Structures are given as structure tokens and as C-alpha cells.
Amino acid sequence: MKALSPVTFRASPPSEDAAIAQHFYAMWRDLGISADGIQPEWLAISLDFIATARETLNYQAFVATADGTIVGSASGQRFSGLYPLILSASQRQYGYIWGVYVEPAYRKQGIATRLMQLIVEHLTGLGCTKVVLNAAPQARSFYTSLGFSDSNLMELDLTVNLIRENH
């Protein structure tokens, strides 16, 4: 087996947003979502989201590169919330991590761990009091190994369930 090139880590500038978007797309494909299940304009949607997050939520991506090629990426920003943010930032300023992805040939080498460390450092520097993310079932053990805990997020799959009147 050919030895892989050394990997370096750095903050990603806006000029690499398309590569970050490509990794986000690849992540969903790796999770079993078919190409038909992804919006045809996924790239434009992703780039618009990133641009807005850069402007309003202190978005930053970090990348792992080998021989000048991006082989891993992770994104983070202030969490804008699911409801009105009436608590002061000292009480609750969440950061949100998304799009953690490493190319298959570079997995199991600590790359995702280092990317997570960089994102957490970025969010800490913004004054975040907690970091949240949504983990795919396949990645839950990875995130718990980094110190993330299960939360009180509850889900109801509306494609198969309706709320029952008598519980």
C-alpha cells in the first residue's frame, strides 16, 4: 500500500468554499443519500449558506491538505438558534459544527479529531459557552470519544409517525 502524503491543517479562506461545499455533498452521499435526494442546485445553496454564515455568524472552516489537495474539512459558526435568543451570551452562546468530512483514503488517521480541535478553538475564541452538532449514527461514537454528550434533542419522524392522542 502506498504511503499517504503528510497532512497539514489551516483555516480555509472564502476562495475554498466550493471545496467545503463538495465535502458537504460527499458527506451526505457517504451517509446513503442518493444523488436524486439532493437538490440539483446544492452547490449554490451551500455557497449562499456559507457566505451568509461568514457575514453574520462568524463562520470558519478548517481544512486538512495533502500535496496541496484538500482531504478533510470541518465548518463551525455561532448557532443562530431555533427560537428567540432572549438569554444573554454569557448564559448561552452556542457554537455549531457541521460538515465534518475526511476523504476515505485519509480516514482513521486523526484528521477529523484535529479538525474538530481547530473548530472548537475557533468557537471558544468567539465566546461560545457550548458547542452543538448533529451526528450521523455512524459518527456518534467518534463525537462521544471527543467529549460530546447526548443531548435532550427529541425527534419525531413525520414520514412514519403521527402524534397519538392517547399516550
Strand and helix layout:
Elements: E1 8-12, H1 17-30, H2 42-56, E2 60-66, E3 69-78, E4 94-102, H3 111-125, E5 130-133, H4 140-145
Parallel strand pairs: 4-5
Antiparallel strand pairs: 1-2, 2-3, 3-4
Helix pairs in contact: 1-2
Assigned CATH architecture: 3-Layer(aba) Sandwich
Query: Please, how many helices?
Result: 4
Q: What is the first-to-last residue Cα distance?
A: 57 Å
Which structural class do you get from the secondary structure elements?
alpha+beta
H/E order of the elements?
Answer: EHHEEEHEH
Would you kindly provide a written description of the structure presented here, covering whatever features stand out?
This protein is of the alpha+beta class. The chain has one domain (8-145): Aminopeptidase, CATH 3.40.630.30. It is 30% helix and 21% strand. The protein has a five-stranded mixed beta sheet. Strand 4, helix 3 (111-125) and strand 5 (130-133) form a beta-alpha-beta unit. The longest helix is centred in the first third of the chain and has 15 residues, at 42-56. The chain is globular and about 60 Å long. The termini are far apart. The relative contact order is 0.15. The mean pLDDT is 91.
